[in-house]
Design goal:
alpha/beta; Rossmann fold; Dihydrodipicolinate Reductase, domain 2; 2 domains; six-stranded parallel beta sheet; 17 strands; globular; TAT_signal; signal; Gfo/Idh/MocA_oxidrdct_glycsds
Length: 455
């Protein structure tokens, strides 16, 4: 198995997918390389808390990890030790991800930093000749998505986005897509994505930065602000961090670093909805904030309070999709996706898929190859396996950047509509908001001096 470390700014590698489409490769390929030391790819993980370790742990079967990077010394040390117990060689530890990108022996990086770092690291990794697996949501802004697409084209790198519901082992979501695309609910009329709400916070005071954390580096491209936290600790998932802060775990509650539930769970369920609708190469025509609640006061789309969470706590967003399909994104009800059509309805989430069209499969099953047609081949063992198969074929994987960005545009626009408290008309061809200069100003962001993307 050959992996290329050489960046190619001027041309595609032969067979790489063109913009706006993706070529898929399933698990039918021989994985002898997974067991052969000379054939296994060499990986590094950048950003190790929670999901960073999660995607790393699922990848030891297929890859060897030569390095890991994190700006929190405790997180870095703990995960280096865990990794050393999962493979024969202890990975090298770095605070600065750029030292990882400088290494010529690393074939690919897995990025699981907070969202505001994704684009900078991903772009620089591709120009350093690395293939990339990056957690969702891929970007903090729509302009960042366009940039990543451009760099994938320029460099020919393989890029997997971490929307792993596309490779879910139970295949409920693949079955959902197959049901819709095989006409089992007739003409689709409405799809509802339930993605839960966010919590508000009390006033969070400025406190000393923990000794193990490089706060300035954690902020990176985001504006320079004080570190804030309350002493109460979070239990369970994300344990060992303050319950309320502007850093670890809680970063999703701040628009400076993420997009709340809209880009967290929304990046999963809106993705499956768009896939089922065949809307992965287009976008909505209108976004309407039907009802919502922001935890702090806003003016011209910017929060006026800076010591409390600012992402929407509850919402109901209407989205006008192609073919007159109505999409609703809501914080109410069960987490999952409800598909409704002229011949029936069904619901799917990570624990179940229910409804008469599902029950009818007992007497009227889908074609034997229905799931494989959705996936583009036999379903991979997991998301990493699909990524590495694609590294070998030099074809884009199941969660490609183009379909992800088209879906994520809906989530980003929903946040902008709430921040401005108005309906937005979207031009999916030119990928801009129609007749609204202020709204369009939120499609991009300025990077803090010293943390610009190195092109």
């Amino acid at each position: 198995m050959t992996f290329s470390h050489q960046a190619t700014r001027r041309s595609f590698l032969q067979g790489t997918a063109a913009a706006g489409s993706a070529a898929f490769l399933g698990a039918s390929m021989s994985r002898a390389w997974a067991q052969s030391p000379n054939e296994r790819p060499v990986f590094a993980t950048i950003g190790l808390r929670n999901q960073g370790w999660g995607i790393t742990a699922k990848s030891f079967k297929f890859a060897d990890f030569a390095a890991m990077a994190d700006v929190d010394a405790n997180v870095l040390g703990e995960n280096i030790e865990k990794a050393s117990m999962r493979q024969s060689k202890k990975p090298d530890a770095y605070k600065d991800y750029r030292k990882v990108l400088d290494r010529k022996d690393i074939d690919a990086v897995m990025i699981a930093t907070p969202d505001h770092w994704h684009t900078k690291i991903a772009v620089e990794a591709m120009y350093a000749g690395k293939d990339v697996y990056c957690e969702k949501p891929l970007t903090l802004t729509i302009a960042e998505g366009k940039l990543i697409e451009k760099v994938v084209e320029e460099t020919g790198r393989v890029f997997q986005v971490g929307t792993m519901q596309r490779s879910e082992s139970e295949q409920r979501f693949l079955l959902a897509v197959a049901l819709v695309q095989n006409g089992r609910i007739g003409t689709v009329q409405k799809v509802t994505c339930g993605i839960n709400g966010m919590e508000s916070s009390p006033v969070i005071p400025v406190v000393p930065v923990p000794a193990e954390l490089d706060w300035d580096f954690w902020l990176g491209p985001a504006p320079k602000v004080d570190y804030r936290a309350l002493p109460e600790m979070r239990e369970g998932y994300g344990g060992g961090v303050p319950l309320f802060s502007n850093c670890h775990y809680a970063f999703r509650n701040w628009h400076e670093y993420s997009g709340g539930k809209l880009t967290d769970w929304g990046a999963h369920h809106v993705d499956i909805a768009c896939w089922a609708l065949g809307a992965t190469e287009t976008g909505p025509s209108k976004i309407t904030p039907i009802e919502f609640s922001l935890p702090v006061e806003y003016k011209d789309g910017n929060p006026l309070v800076h010591d409390q969470y600012n992402a929407a706590t509850s919402f109901k967003i209407g989205v006008d999709m192609p073919n007159e399909v109505e999409m609703i994104i809501t914080s109410e009800g069960d987490n999952g996706i409800l598909f409704e059509g002229t011949k029936g309805r069904f619901f799917v989430n990570r624990g179940k898929i229910t409804g008469k069209p599902v029950e009818d499969l007992q007497d009227n099953p889908l074609p034997e190859d229905a799931i494989e047609k959705v996936y583009g081949g036999p379903v991979s063992e997991n998301h990493t396996a699909n990524f590495i198969d694609s590294m070998k074929s030099r074809k884009q994987p199941i969660s490609d950047v183009w379909s992800h960005n088209r879906m994520l545009e809906i989530c980003h626009l929903s946040n902008i509509a709430m921040r401005l408290n108005r309906e937005l008309e979207w031009d999916p061809k030119n990928r801009e908001i129609v007749g609204d200069d202020l709204a369009n100003s939120f499609l991009s962001r300025e990077y803090r001096k010293g943390f610009e993307i190195n092109m």
